[in-house]
Amino acid sequence: MSNRKLNVFLPLLFAITLALGMYLGHKMPGANTGAQTLLFTRPSRAPLQEVMDLLKIKYVDTLQVAQLQEEAIEGLLSHLDPHSIYIPPSNLQSVNEDLEGHFSGIGVEFNIISDTVNVVSVVPGGPSETAGVQSGDKIIKVNDSLVAGNNITGEKIRKLLRGPKNSKVIVSMLRQQKVTPIQIVRGDIPLYSVDASYMVTPEIGYVKISKFAGTTYQEFMDAVRKLSKSGMSKLVIDLRQNPGGYLDAATRIADELLDDNKLIVYTKGKGYPRADYRCEKPGLFEKGGLTILTDEGSASASEILAGAVQEWDRGTLIGRRTFGKGLVQEQFDLSNGGALRLTVARYYLNSGRSIQKSYADGRQAYDDDIMNRFNHGEFVNQDSIHQLDTLKYKTAAGRVVYGGGGITPDIFMPFDTSRFTNVLTAMYSRSTFSNFTYQYYNSHKNEFDQYKNATLFTNQYTVSNEVYNAFKAFAVKDSIPGVASINAHDEKEIKTRLKALLARQKWGYPGFYEALNKDDEMMKKAVEVLNKD
What we know:
With 533 residues, the protein is α+β, with helices and mostly antiparallel strands. The protein has 18 helices and 21 strands.
């Protein structure tokens, strides 16, 4: 009986409670602010999303919505700094691989000559070497896809050769007029960022860093340990044309060069609290002569490393003013498979100087800055350098330095503009040098067996008149204008480039840089400075 009475009065009780709650809620302060409407209506959409929805539903023609969205994103970012960028899904993997320091593939370097894919080199210990692929092989087919004489591009062949680790691919190779199918099991292929390390003199070591990736610090440590065992007491670090990369890689290397608890760099942004990066442990090369080579292509993480060395007067910077990128990006993954690389902070060196150049005049002016420097004569005359930041800062030893537009080196080295005559420019743009050396090396391999290492080759090999004349004949066939009127300076440049590329064919990038640097003026200056220490 009691349960029956409860069932009768229960709906009435709920109704009274609900009415009372609504009344009290209406009378409470702030009840009419509109906040309660979130419970009953959809959140309002942003105008951009409304426009996209209307286009999808109402527009008269069918639209490529994904492309429109990408263009809209890029339009938004165009009003920000030049380094906040959108990475489409199709590009994200290659961008990440470059910074992570590896990818999954077969482990060959190739070039394309006359619609033929030529294997230039094989990664030592990689999948292709294990399967028997050799330098000089020509790739005819990848699985069932014909790639020879098929208007193949570098991007297409990379997509065919790369794939998941441990997956199999059959590559048909042409070798000595015979086509042989070779099964290759794909594996992790390293993307080295320390391109070369060798002893320049019995005391001076050299390390070339091409970018700051996930593996750069360990590569640098391995190189310095190897050089130290060979007697290195002084070091040249080459950061020319190094566009940067991971901040962490640069600060960890700086920690190996600077002592105590020195401040390397700090970052700070509107929604990004200050973060200090200091030396934390005893370094591998805190003592001994040090020079760092820079140019207008040295940016971001390169400028952090070079700037820290300059700020603490640890070594001598040689070369030309750096790019001027002092912004920190953070990458955010997006739901469409792409990513947003957004600037979240600026970085500042120990003295407080920022080396970020101005982007107030827009992206086009920012992109034109390097060419404007060249046109203003800055590449050949130190007096033409225009400091964009009039504030003066001081290094630990009291030397005056400037911010706001890259790092000006301690010793200026002009750019050799005569390297880019019309004939040389044509040879570079048409890959005439690399195409010739590939063919010459593979038809004269026995001639290079007498050189046991790159150092002996660099010191003993000379490009003969026979090789030089063969190159000129090749250039004429390649439709290079002006070959008959090559001057003495161009001839020297050609022979230097040919020697370096022949060394690369046999010893890779370590051989290339060792041969190329033999007559490099900036390297000569670095050796001169270190020999005075």
